[in-house]
């Protein structure tokens, strides 16, 4: 008999072990790594950054010559007649005419008021803008992954709290039933205990639903199958050593939104350089090789051909264009002024966001300590109340109140940790300093 019991026990533990290990234990580091590799918006941002990189070439800036090859072959069949100066005439039906031209032409702009160099610098700034947008996308998505992940940790803690209260409610129901069976309690006490147990079980089911939906959302951020099951770590670790001045200094250097505005101003300045370049002459070198061949059934010349090189240059300068040059330069200067205003505005927005988020962060840190103390007090109160309930010295209402106080304290403590973590993530995202 002992052997059978031991065998069944081993099977039970094996099944439990297999069930636990069937779920992947997903760490926040692994979640961020998966998101960087799989997230669709990050992939699109990476490709857009690569497009900006690809566009940075001297050819795209107009510094290289262009070569064009062409061929033209024209054929016709006509009825033709000719009358010469001496009065004689000639005619021919179905006269065939052929013309063949082919060649290669070369063009090279050797001077355009330095516009091509400003264009190349502008392409480089656009490349930096693409990198900044990629960084912004990564920060936002990694922030979402962190928020969704720690929301699951919070919900997991709340599940544990609800599991605990259900155990207590079951103990209360058992005690009520025992007391009723020996005539020390009324049926009403048993019914109240059953109703409270049912309420706790409903709350647990709702929490399980929320937890399952949270997993689906995190899987979405990780761009993987929503049915993938996993567990998260049990605790939330909050960085409680953030300093507002340090965060503001980092934000001035690393915040993608501010960085983009600074780059936009540089792009506007380079646009002004290109506009001013139109005041200078444009000089182009030209060259080419051409072959021409013509055949005609009627006329003084039945066939002709030519081939050879050609070369030269052309120059042009804007003398007067209806004052459009002056207007374009004025508009470009206003764009630079707008870019500077946008930088100042972004600075103000950034400092405001950092200041308010930091104040929320400090409040949440204080709440963590307060709610942690509340959990300890509520647990002590529940233990004392449970002992008194067992010996029948307090009412079921007092017991239920102590039970709910403990559960609510656990939930508030979990929420405080989660809110503090969200504040930390928000501050680091604004500072451009999320570690991944």
TrEMBL record:
Q: Name the InterPro entries for this protein.
A: OMP_efflux (IPR003423), TolC-like (IPR051906)
Keywords, alphabetical: Cell outer membrane, Membrane, Signal, Transmembrane, Transmembrane beta strand, Transport
**What GO MF annotations does this protein's record show?**
efflux transmembrane transporter activity; porin activity
Cellular component annotations (GO), alphabetically ordered:
cell outer membrane; efflux pump complex
Please, which domain of life does this record's source organism belong to?
A: Bacteria
Identify the stretch(es) annotated as Disordered: 72-92
Mark the transmembrane ranges. Answer: none
Compartment(s): Cell outer membrane
Question: May I ask which residue range the UniProt record assigns to the signal sequence?
Answer: 1-22
Family according to the record: Belongs to the outer membrane factor (OMF) (TC 1.B.17) family.
What name does the UniProt record give this protein?
Transporter
* Organism of provenance: Flavobacterium hibernum
């Amino acid at each position: 008999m002992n052997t059978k019991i031991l065998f069944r026990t081993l099977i039970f533990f094996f099944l439990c072990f297999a069930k636990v290990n069937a779920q992947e234990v997903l760490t926040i580091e692994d979640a961020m790594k998966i998101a960087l590799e799989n997230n669709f918006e990050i992939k699109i941002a990476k490709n857009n950054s690569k497009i900006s990189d690809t566009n940075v070439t001297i050819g795209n800036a107009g510094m290289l010559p262009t070569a064009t090859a062409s061929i033209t072959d024209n054929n016709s069949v006509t009825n033709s007649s000719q009358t010469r100066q001496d009065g004689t005439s000639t005619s021919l039906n179905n006269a065939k005419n052929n013309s063949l031209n082919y060649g290669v032409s070369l063009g090279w702009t050797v001077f355009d008021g330095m516009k091509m160099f400003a264009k190349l610098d502008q392409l480089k700034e656009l490349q930096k803008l693409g990198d900044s947008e990629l960084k912004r996308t990564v920060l936002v998505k990694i922030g979402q992954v962190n928020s969704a992940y720690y929301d699951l940790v919070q919900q997991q803690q709340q599940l544990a709290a609800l599991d605990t209260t259900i155990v207590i409610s079951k103990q209360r129901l058992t005690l009520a039933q025992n007391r009723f069976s020996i005539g020390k309690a009324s049926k009403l006490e048993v019914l109240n205990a059953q109703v409270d147990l049912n309420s706790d079980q409903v709350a647990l089911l709702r929490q399980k639903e929320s937890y399952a939906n949270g997993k689906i959302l995190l899987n979405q951020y990780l761009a993987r199958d929503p049915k993938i099951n996993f567990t998260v770590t049990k605790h939330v670790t909050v960085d409680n050593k953030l300093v507002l001045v340090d965060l503001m200094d980092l934000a001035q250097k690393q915040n993608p939104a501010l960085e983009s505005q600074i780059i936009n101003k540089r792009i506007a300045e380079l646009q002004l350089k290109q506009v001013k370049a139109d005041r200078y002459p444009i000089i182009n070198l030209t060259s080419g090789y051409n072959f021409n061949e013509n055949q005609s059934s009627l006329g003084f010349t039945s066939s002709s051909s030519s081939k050879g090189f050609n070369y030269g240059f052309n120059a042009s300068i804007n003398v007067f264009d209806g004052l459009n040059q002056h207007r374009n330069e004025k508009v470009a200067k206003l764009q630079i002024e707008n870019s500077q205003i946008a930088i100042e505005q972004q600075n103000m927005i950034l400092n405001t966001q950092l200041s308010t988020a930091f104040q929320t962060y400090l409040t949440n840190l204080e709440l963590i300590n307060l709610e942690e103390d509340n959990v300890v007090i509520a647990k002590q109160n529940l233990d004392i109340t449970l002992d008194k309930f067992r010996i029948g010295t307090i009412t079921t209402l007092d017991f239920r109140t102590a039970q709910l106080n403990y559960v609510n304290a656990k939930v508030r403590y979990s929420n405080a940790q989660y809110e503090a973590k969200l504040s930390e993530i928000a501050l680091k995202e604004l500072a451009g300093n999320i570690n991944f």
